[in-house]
Amino acid sequence: MKYKRILLKLSGESLMGDKQFGIDNNRIHSYALQIKEIRDMGIQIAIVIGGGNIFRGVQAEAGGMDRTHGDYMGMLATMINSMALQAALEAVGVHTRLQSAIEMKEISEPFIRRKAVRHLEKSRVVIFGAGTGNPFFTTDSAASLRAIEMNADVILKGTRVDGIYTADPEKDKMATKFKEITFDEVYAKGLNVMDLTAFTLCKENDLPIIVFDMDTPGNLKKIIEGEQVGTIVKN
């Protein structure tokens, strides 16, 4: 296997499937089966999910709400998604632990790094909810931070697009896909992979990112087996 321990970053929007908001049960079940498939191969898996299908802090700010208040609401949205994924994984027989950056002892463990690593070593899937626990940081930043703390081999960023393109492929039919690109090239070209805080964390800690299409079953397994899927960003 190319990777032993991964951090899978999922967007909240990806959980919507064809819906306008909320969670599509078929989509989350599909994700659970793909995650189970690589867990059964012996891969240690940590997961961070966004909350954009339910609420975004930046939306609140645009409506006149205090950004800090809105960001905390967004963190709660990530916990709803995290609980939904936890339920979907356990329904297919995958043992999970949900850790929250904000204390919610009735529904999750607090984030404790050594405990999270132990869960991974015992083949439990660990889901990290509530971002970093701080406003003004995205779930991309949370994913980068947790991946570094867990000594993950790679961040797998599952999206609706099958990699990084020269332009938005949904808007520009002439856009071409990169198979491989460096962190410096992404900076120079102004490509949107993650927010700069998250991206810089990965660059400085030499943590590669693979951007791929999570909605195509089998892609996750192919990456683990070393096949060229999506776009890899590395130093």
Secondary-structure map with pairings?
Elements: E1 5-10, H1 25-39, E2 44-49, H2 57-62, H3 67-91, E3 96-100, E4 109-110, H4 113-121, E5 125-129, H5 139-149, E6 154-159, E7 164-165, E8 177-178, E9 180-182, H6 183-189, H7 196-204, E10 209-213, H8 219-224, E11 231-234
Helix pairs in contact: 1-3, 5-7
Tell me the CATH superfamily.
Acetylglutamate kinase-like
- The sequence of SSEs as H and E is EHEHHEEHEHEEEEHHEHE
Name the CATH class: Alpha Beta
Overall pLDDT confidence:
95
> In total, how many beta strands?
11
Walk across the major sheet and give the strand order: 4-3-5-2-1-6-10-11-9
Helix content: 25-40%
Low-pLDDT runs of 5+ residues are none
